[in-house]
Specification:
558 residues; single chain; five-stranded antiparallel sheet; globular; alpha/beta; 12 helices
Length: 558
């Protein structure tokens, strides 16, 4: 067989020379009304080079056009899975469940399919196939087939699967999901002024994609977020709230803030998190706050004004009541979360507590969440609603944490789920089943589009650098690429993460139709194993079979 085309799941990653790591064929896929379901078509050429140039085939390796056939009435979108250079695939401490541990080319970027594909002798490549099921689709089986043809029309190969449609829609997503959004990185990549009209248009494109992929909470930069910024340095100003200082008094302008909130609601965001009110690593400094002072603009707070010197508390006392009024006016106060400082530790508990004491009189009764890994901060009652790492979460659960959040980032690469490029896709998606089992309230990650080096000293080219310049395992800093004309290009990791959110929706729905015990019997295969954040079945089959079994049970009960 010269032209080799195989349909496989999105839980595989196709390496150019390593093939598909014994991927099994995918023959059936189930989806619901209004859902995007996806598969891959892996292809390879095993024949001989063309030795003569003809009008039919003018290249040494054959070129093929690809078309979709079948009776599926929804939209089918084809994209190429492109490999990206990875120089930092994993941390020193890691397990054996990676698709590679060496620097090399790894599949990650999804780009539009134009005229067709180039098949290369003994190199595996892949197409990503999204099937958008219409909201009114009748139930039953459909056939989706990809046909590869030579430029002259001769059929070279075809492959497809049966898409089964359940005539009902998944329930709305309950789980809160945030991936931190950086307006400054967009402005830097596209060379536009922050909050110019072009910048607003570009932000809308990236925000819309995030909301479409199950990210339903958005980080809102009241002032320039003091995240991953070298102490003493600064990131471009992305401040939504205007500040005017006259003597010792403050006035606030929420015009830009209101535009942001309304845009985010319009594209689909339901929840909001206000950016951190203090800097990272112990809350010893305020974020950068720029104000109009007399006739000039200046940074009135930042690295040059330690919290211990005073002044910032007076500012917060003036600012926070007006912020709460705005959130009420926009109708989102009950759906808003706050941050004090990112990743406090037991070693700076005193400064974190001091910062918390400044804001609690204003935010009492409102949810304050902060990422951390030291359970002592929770046990001492300092952080009442922590967001633990997924390699420390069981310590918090054992300590009594309920309605919990969880996150992972650059340090969670051993035994737990993550979204590194060098990890298999099933390991990223298993997060959804874990979130369901432990009834998580939310999931947080720090990087939707962080396109800087570590500490934000300068921007990087995301198509060449995906590790913040050898600082974090490849893929940790971002899920999207800055495509042409201000449009995002997805990594394969973003739709896989969206599928994990759909897993939660499906399992929760099945629980409503049956019982918690029934669903957990499916999840843990009748007690064959105990699912934990650091313990789960290896390989894609578990997740594929669980989805099909749960979907069939839902359909049977409908």
């Amino acid at each position: 067989m010269e032209y080799d085309v195989r349909v496989i799941s999105t839980l595989e990653k196709v390496l150019p020379k390593g093939g598909m790591l014994n991927a099994r064929p995918l023959r059936r896929l189930t989806g619901f009304r209004g859902q995007r379901v996806a598969f891959q078509a892996a292809y390879c050429f095993h024949g001989d080079y063309y030795v003569n140039q003809t009008t039919e085939q003018a290249t040494r390796n054959p070129f093929a056009r690809v078309r979709v056939e079948g009776d599926f009435e929804g939209e089918v979108r084809l994209r190429r899975v492109e490999c990206v250079p990875v120089t930092f695939p994993c941390e020193k401490k890691h397990d054996s469940e990676y698709i590679g541990e060496q620097a090399g080319l790894y599949p990650d970027l999804l780009t539009p399919l134009k005229e067709g594909v180039q098949l290369v002798w003994e190199q595996w490549r892949a197409l990503w196939v999204d099937c958008e099921i219409p909201q009114n689709a009748p139930g039953g089986d459909r056939r989706v087939e990809l046909v590869f043809t030579a430029p002259g029309g001769a059929e070279l190969a075809r492959a497809g699967l049966t898409l089964h449609v359940v005539p009902a829609a998944l329930p709305p997503q309950r789980l809160l999901h945030t991936e931190w959004f950086y307006p400054d990185c967009l402005a830097q990549q596209y060379g536009c002024e922050v909050f110019s009209e072009r910048h607003w248009t570009i932000m809308e494109h990236f925000l819309r994609l995030a909301a479409k992929r199950g990210i339903n909470m958005i980080l809102t930069p009241l002032f320039t977020p003091a995240l991953d910024t070298l102490i003493g340095a600064e990131r471009p100003t992305t401040q939504l709230v205007g500040v005017e200082k006259r003597g010792g008094e403050y006035r606030f302008d929420y015009t830009r803030f209101r535009r942001w909130i309304r845009l985010c609601k319009a594209v689909g965001f339901e929840y909001f998190e206000m950016a951190h009110l203090f800097a990272q690593w112990g809350a010893k400094y305020p974020p950068k706050v720029v104000a109009q002072v007399e006739s000039r603009e200046e940074a009135i707070f930042g690295w040059h004004t330690p919290v211990s010197e005073g002044g910032y508390k007076h500012f917060l006392d003036a600012f926070l009541p007006t912020l709460l009024d705005e959130l009420r006016a926009e109708g989102i106060l009950e759906r808003t979360y706050f941050h004090v400082s990112d990743e406090p530790t037991i070693y700076n508990a005193d400064t974190y507590q001091a910062a918390l004491d400044m804001v609690l009189p204003h935010l009492k009764g409102l949810p304050i969440i902060d990422a951390l890994s030291h359970v002592e901060l929770y046990e001492k009652g300092i952080v009442k609603k922590p967001v633990p790492t997924n390699d420390s979460i069981h310590e918090f659960l054992d300590a009594g944490l309920t309605d919990a959040w969880v996150y992972y980032c650059c340090a969670q690469g051993d035994k737990v789920s993550n979204r590194y490029i060098a990890m298999p896709a099933w390991r990223s998606r298993v997060l959804g089943v874990q979130l369901y089992k432990y009834r998580m309230e939310g999931f947080l990650h720090w990087g939707y589009n962080f396109w800087n080096c570590q500490y934000s000293l300068h921007p990087i080219d995301p198509y060449r650098v995906n590790d913040a310049e050898d600082s974090f395992p490849a893929g940790d800093p971002f899920l999207v690429y800055p495509g042409r004309d201000g449009e995002p290009e997805e990594s394969i990791r973003l739709p896989v993460l969206a599928d994990a959110m759909d897993d939660v929706r499906l399992l929760e729905w099945l629980e409503q139709l049956t019982s918690r015990e029934f669903v957990m019997q499916l999840v843990e295969e009748g007690g064959r194993f105990e699912l934990r954040f650091d313990q789960y079945p290896s390989g894609p089959d578990y997740l594929l079979e669980l989805w099909e079994a749960a979907a069939a049970e839902v359909e049977r009960r409908l």
